[in-house]
């Protein structure tokens, strides 16, 4: 029936529109395809996108799209049909979609038929309330493209408009979507479009709207065929101005967006290691964060949490503003130098602070049309946002040196500090969920018992510490002293009240009856992330996180499978969240657990490429390597840990712009010998680093672009058992210190840098343990080797590992030293430096078993 309808309409318009006026077409110009790129054959149900600051095309790789121009959902169910005019044959574009190419500035879907091919270029301008879809066509015979979509003009959840209607403007060749006040308007069409459907003038039609674009074979080499969508809350004239600008200035807008991402790649922090997967994942994570920065015409600019298809609803994933997500993601933004994005995002959060000082949890993009904070319960129902706001501002200050913003935010900071105090009724320094709201978990059995969870507790501690430092800088000595006192009280409460001595672990929460909720969860990562726990006690927790009980091949489970509450597909009680894995990775680097940390970092990197190209999904099953059906495919806090763990963990780079200090504490695994770091930003200053590690030497070239000197604390890991023989700075001997953690040696020195500086550290007898990253396929169970920990003493290295029964694993020992004896493994091959071991797990029960490998050296 539908095919017959299209054929009749085609006949009616065959003689009405045989060619387009050249002035209505967009002249072809070379599309930029350099830089970052991912491509594959179409996976029909997988997510794809093109996202700007004010608009978004969200879709599937088969060409089904929805379009958002904030705060409106303009349309969904967008599809292309191809009509072969001479044969009167109608083809569904979803059946012809063959390949997809994804770039930061555009996404290109390619449709292929024996008589034609077409590229659909999805393009959201950087700063316009509209989008363009360009069609680049090659055909030997007359062809028409039918554009079909379901009109919406709906506000983002939970706001709403009433009385929507549609009409066709035959002069301007677009559909007008509006409502009774005529203030809210969207335009959808093409300068060469012809209507082939209609609806009632007073309402939206029950069937999809459709228009036709005729393709003259003689014009395909010269022109793109455009589809344009614009919207405005200021009426049709303003929407029309945007529509016209998109058409007439497309090449300029295209170039602006391309250059924006070129700058993001080249002028902000870039890192080049020998591992291309890690390099690419890092660059795509920068893109993912950049696309989270949204400007809403009523609310302002800030970070949204993620994107996913809304279908028939009005909730596009998590594309509304979140406090906690902003704070976590700001660590990544600061790490690669995007201080302006952090500043604007924190300002948006501050603007919506509650009168009592509490910081918002979430803000729908439709909130400009409704009393969001007054009549809806979602705005402030999380507790951790308030202490996290304080912590996030302090982190921003350390990296950016922006005291002016801190002064501007000082009243809000003091209100937030007082709210943190008010949420502690028993005066142990820890905020209470029973007073302030949710934190680690949002649902389930644990909530009824929880008085204060360890996530909220750790943030309470860190908030007091951060506030004390800020108060000193503001000259508020009394506030600084008071908050420092509360910090000590809270830290002691955290360390002692949550510790379960008989289990050598930290409880998930303190309960309402003053007991401990002793379930094994991943959430103790938070005090580890802030270095709030002693190394001895932390060791037990970190061993658990690295074990097969908690770690899968794609990240860390939120809850131990040994718990009665464990469910591998339950949102809070067993799934694998990349953002929790990110916290864990940083905790491991903080406590010199670089073997497990690098494994988790590479899991995060791998997740970038297995679902939506270039983006990490929100969460995975705890048992199978696959995102949950409810998972948002482009989740910002799943991508940002790639940046934070790489920069602050693997590289160990941090800074203090006010004191003009930098810490560079790298922990390179055996597979990384050379690293190039460009545009590391602290305040207004920039540093470049080149690192080259040889057999018995590691060399650092430091190239600052500074006005006044910096103090650099350099402390690279040299492996286990190393003996440092000499350190030179610009060919002159330099004093140094040796720090050891379980036999892993770091050579530490302080140097002042104001010009190019070269450091060489020479050492002997270093031992590096290395196992190549294990990358699962979609649908796999966990099978990879788990390195629990390693330590060195008395010429022996002890490595605790877990593996599956019946499996064999490779592990390398990189050292010039000879092996005298070996237990728990076999030597498969060796040369002067690399000894390859084979580990087998032939005994024990099914599943993972643990064993100790002991290697003795000369």
Walkthrough of the structure:
It is a single chain. This protein has 858 residues and is α+β, with helices and mostly antiparallel strands. The protein is 27% helix and 33% strand. It contains 19 helices and 52 strands. The strands form 12 sheets. Strands 1, 2, 8, 9, 10, 11, 13, 14, 15 and 18 form a 10-stranded antiparallel beta sheet that branches. Strands 3, 4, 5, 6, 7, 12, 16 and 17 form an 8-stranded antiparallel beta sheet that branches. It has a 7-stranded antiparallel beta sheet with strand order 19-35-36-37-44-40-41. Helix 5 (276-290) packs across helix 18 (594-606). It is globular.
Layout: helices, strands, pairs:
Blueprint: H1 2-13, E1 26-27, E2 38-41, E3 47-51, E4 55-60, E5 65-69, E6 72-84, E7 89-92, H2 93-96, E8 97-103, E9 106-113, E10 116-123, E11 130-139, E12 143-155, E13 165-169, E14 174-178, E15 185-189, E16 193-195, E17 209-215, E18 223-232, H3 236-248, H4 250-266, E19 270-272, H5 276-290, E20 293-296, E21 300-303, E22 306-307, E23 321-322, H6 323-336, H7 339-351, E24 362-363, H8 372-375, H9 385-400, H10 403-422, H11 433-436, H12 446-449, E25 450-453, H13 454-473, H14 477-497, E26 499-500, E27 505-506, E28 509-511, E29 516-517, H15 525-529, H16 535-546, E30 551-552, E31 555-556, H17 578-590, H18 594-606, E32 634-635, H19 636-650, E33 653-656, E34 661-664, E35 674-682, E36 685-693, E37 697-705, E38 710-714, E39 717-720, E40 723-729, E41 732-733, E42 737-741, E43 744-753, E44 757-764, E45 768-770, E46 786-793, E47 796-804, E48 808-814, E49 819-823, E50 826-830, E51 834-840, E52 848-857
Parallel strand pairs: 34-38
Antiparallel strand pairs: 1-18, 2-8, 3-4, 4-5, 5-6, 6-7, 6-12, 8-9, 9-10, 10-11, 11-18, 12-17, 13-14, 14-15, 15-18, 16-17, 19-35, 20-21, 22-32, 23-24, 25-28, 26-27, 28-29, 30-31, 33-34, 35-36, 36-37, 37-44, 38-43, 39-43, 40-41, 40-44, 42-43, 45-48, 46-47, 47-52, 48-51, 49-52, 50-51
